[in-house]
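for the recovery benchmark. tokens below, seq after
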């Protein structure tokens, strides 16, 4: 079992409060057609929750039974991509079964990592039932990440989610400019640098896979912590993007 690492800090630890918080955030976002893939931010819910909700609202009650979830490894050195080596991921809302697949495992990369964990309660509230493929991404090329995504792409019942924030600790107007440039690059299925986004490695893999498959990218929301919580002297950027198959 991969136990929660940031319940009570990034999001509420009480199940009822957590479900109410996520439901309220989802209700405040607009509906849209269910996509094949999403990019969503992963900060504390007070900061990035509304932007993340705008992404997951697109899949609320969608007929999805499998989620491939990728996020950066912030704390543990990691070469490539790795599963948590657990049969399930636990949040205060319950346990989600981890699919058994032939990929490397690295429990250390998952133990304290928030980038995957904070997305799971949104998925638990938005979807009825699903299995999970949670992958921490470390030092990996776009080709390597895209190759794993191709292996796991699945059909219409599989959703791909990449967890990433955008710029970090810039003044508000500088962050707006930087994040607008990153959003333009994402919409063009281009490439980000680690300075553009902490999840540049998984994002770039998704962008490459999306380009190869002819997906269309759509910007859902683009804000920063100065818009949601905190001051505007040092902000973190958040973007929500959807990717549609033709």
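predicted aa per position
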């Amino acid at each position: 079992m991969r136990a929660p690492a940031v319940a009570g800090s990034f999001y509420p630890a009480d199940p009822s409060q957590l479900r109410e918080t996520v439901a309220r955030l989802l209700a405040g976002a607009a509906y849209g057609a269910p996509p094949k893939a999403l990019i969503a931010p992963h900060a504390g819910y007070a900061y990035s929750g509304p932007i993340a909700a705008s992404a997951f609202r697109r899949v609320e009650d969608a007929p999805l039974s499998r989620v491939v979830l990728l996020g950066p490894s912030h704390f543990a050195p990691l070469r490539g991509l790795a599963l948590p080596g657990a049969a399930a991921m636990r949040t205060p809302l319950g346990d989600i079964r981890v699919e058994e697949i032939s990929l490397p495992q690295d429990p250390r990369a998952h133990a304290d990592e928030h980038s995957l964990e904070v997305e799971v309660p949104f998925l638990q509230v938005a979807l009825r039932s699903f299995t999970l493929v949670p992958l921490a991404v470390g030092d990996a090329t776009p080709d390597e990440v895209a190759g794993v995504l191709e292996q796991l792409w699945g059909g219409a019942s599989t959703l791909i989610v990449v967890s990433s924030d955008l710029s970090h600790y810039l003044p508000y107007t500088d962050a707006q400019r930087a994040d607008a440039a990153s959003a333009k690059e994402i919409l063009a299925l281009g490439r980000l640098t680690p300075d553009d986004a902490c999840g540049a490695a998984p994002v770039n893999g998704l962008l490459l896979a999306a380009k190869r498959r002819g997906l269309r990218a759509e910007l859902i929301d683009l804000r920063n912590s100065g818009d949601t919580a905190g001051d505007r002297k040092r902000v973190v950027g958040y973007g929500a993007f959807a990717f549609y198959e033709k």
